[in-house]
Write a structure and sequence with these properties.
The protein is α/β, with parallel strands linked by helices. 43% of the residues lie in helices and 16% in strands. The strands form 3 sheets. A 6-stranded parallel sheet has the order 1-11-8-7-5-6, with helices on both faces. The chain has a 3-stranded parallel sheet with strand order 3-2-4, with helices on both faces. Bound molecules: NADP nicotinamide-adenine-dinucleotide phosphate.
């Protein structure tokens, strides 16, 4: 039987409608709506398309949203003082600096500078630390979206073997932590892992976050597995994931498509985080 497709697009639509209603209620209560500011440095086409989608999502749910564009030549000092301004601006609830940044800017310094309460990407080391020790934290958007997707399919993660391919700070590591918090037994694999397939074949939940088109092949997947494809790659001008979708959808139990899977849910999680940040700041 072909796998059930977990559509991030469909789920996002549903969650965004719910967010829209919450914004109306919050506006009635506080006379104010959440405000998200996205900072884009340079004009990388992929980054432009990501920030456009984020802005569009924010506007759709009724947030106030602003895109601040700065030239590639902006100095680190100038960018840091822009973040200071946004940190001090009470009307701003969430700040997102689109990555990657130009090489002359230290990305760690930029992330560290964003006020913890406004770090809606969940990348600030203190947010990451809070997540690790089980304290309240704004969760990183892509892994948060993954958990929402799995749960939306009515699946109970507890006790499952989760295998993550990729160990980046953005995706692999926080996905491992969130899955462990859901009581999965987690294995993180990477480019130095020996006999990768021996791990992936054991996965009830397989998360592919590598950045290589169709890297995960059908012989690496356990029948019935939940396959989450985070990868975004371009092949012959077309988007495709890290998972060899067609053959794997014949054997997996559940699968996320690319496009229309993890991508839209990442943005939806960002909107959820901005709403959460707004509520926390109003308390
Ligand atoms: P990244 O920082 O480049 O990390 C890639 C990971 O894959 C690394 O941990 C690397 O291992 C591992 N890897 C590379 N080759 C491998 C191999 N042959 N076998 C096993 N593991 C291997 O990438 P990322 O930021 O995590 O992103 C991963 C993909 O997800 C990209 O396509 C990105 O565009 C996409 N993405 C999508 C979204 C979304 O919203 N849809 C969000 C974020 C990222 P080492 O650590 O050993 O080098």
């Amino acid at each position: 039987m072909p796998a059930t497709v977990i559509s991030g697009r469909k789920l996002s639509k549903q969650i965004r409608e719910e967010l829209k209603e919450k914004v109306v209620q919050l506006n009635a209560k506080y006379g104010d709506v959440p405000k998200l500011v996205v900072v884009l440095v340079g004009d990388d086409p992929a980054s432009i398309s990501y920030v456009t989608a984020k802005e569009k999502g924010a506007k759709y749910v009724g947030f106030d949203s602003e895109l601040i564009r700065k030239p590639e030549s902006i100095s680190e000092e100038e960018l840091l003082s822009l973040i200071d301004e946004l940190n001090n601006d009470e009307s701003v609830n969430g700040i997102l600096v689109q990555l990657p940044l130009p090489k002359h800017i230290d990305v760690d310094k930029v992330i560290d500078r964003i006020a913890l309460a406004k770090d809606v990407d969940g990348f600030h080391p203190e947010n990451v630390g809070n997540l690790h020790v089980g304290r309240p934290a704004l969760l990183p958007c892509t892994p948060k979206g993954i958990i929402t997707m799995i749960k939306s399919a009515g699946l109970n993660i507890s006790g499952m073997n989760a295998v993550i391919v990729g160990r980046s700070n953005l995706v692999g590591k926080p996905a491992a932590m969130l899955l462990m918090n859901e009581n999965a037994t987690v294995t993180i694999t990477h480019s130095r892992t020996k006999d990768l397939a021996s791990h992936t074949k054991n996965a009830d939940i397989l998360v592919a976050a590598i950045g290589r088109a169709k890297f995960i092949t059908a012989d690496m997947v356990k029948p019935g597995a939940i396959v989450i494809d985070v990868g975004v790659n371009k092949v012959d001008g077309k988007l495709c994931g890290d998972v060899d979708y067609e053959p794997i959808s014949e054997i997996a139990g559940f699968i996320t498509p690319v496009p229309g899977g993890v991508g839209p849910m990442t943005i939806t999680s960002l909107l959820e985080n901005t709403l959460e940040a707004f509520i926390n700041q109003k308390k």
